[in-house]
Amino acid sequence: MTVLDKVELRAAMRRLRKDLAAANPNAAARVTAFVEDLPSSSLVAIYHAMASEIDGAPLALALIQAGRMLCLPVVEQRNAPLVFRRWTVGDPLEMDAGGCEAPLPLAEVVVPELILTPLLAFDDTGTRLGQGGGYYDRTFAALPHITRIGLAYAGQRVERLPVEPHDIRLHGVLSETGYTPFA
Q1: Model pTM?
Q2: pLDDT digits (tens, 9 = 90+) for 154-167
Q3: What is the pLDDT of residues 1-53, one digit of tens each?
């Protein structure tokens, strides 16, 4: 697949995700019903949704109620893996180097056991199409032992995505229809 093809695929999947978000306004709340289906972990990395990404806020509350601690990703350097800082609902946030809301620098740096990642598309092999910045790919390569779960609308599933050498597969996907583990 050429770079141009991947750019076009990302644009198409952004449009689809936007449509799915509009058609499923309560999807983020429905995801919370499946929190107990996620692999066990005491520290979970979640994210603050941008654009039409499925909102992780209801899931964050459900994870806390289930006794799990949370952290958020932080872009400290553009071409480096993400750093994770401990966070709970209501903690102050600031923009990081990637333009995302992140915990303040005084928050404890931690290593999560499970990372919930946004995506544009996924397939049944666990391949994930991200935004193209490479932040999660670099992070997954640096932390290969961490459980990787996509957080998505069920409609973001595609038959097959192209795989590049740097791509690291997900262990599963959580959507408004349930949790799907990959072999």
Answers
A1: 0.94
A2: 999 999 998 888 88
A3: 455 588 899 999 999 999 999 999 999 999 999 999 999 999 999 999 999 99
Q: Which helix (H) or strand (E) covers residue 143, if one does? A: none
Cα–Cα nearest to 175, from 14, 30, 4: 30
The DSSP output letter for 69 is E
Give me the phi and psi of 153, to 5 degrees please.
-80, 145
Q: Which one-letter amino acid corresponds to residue 181? A: P
Listed in sequence order, the residues at least 6 apart from 144 whose beta carbon sits closer than 8 Å to its beta carbon are: 168
Domains, the chain, ranges and CATH? 3-181 (3.40.50.10420)
Instruction: Judge whether 178 and 139 are in contact, CB under 8 Å.
Output: no
